[in-house]
Design brief:
By secondary structure, the protein is α+β, with helices and mostly antiparallel strands.
Amino acid sequence: MKRYVLDTNILIYYFNGEMENAVENKVSAIMGESFQISVISSWNF
């Protein structure tokens, strides 16, 4: 089984419907398999 890492920006574009159909179809296929989400946190001190 392949594993994928999706950046949060990709998910934002996906759920906002801001992707071309071919890209959206690929992301949908990836989300139907095993994926993880990358998260970067910024700390302001």
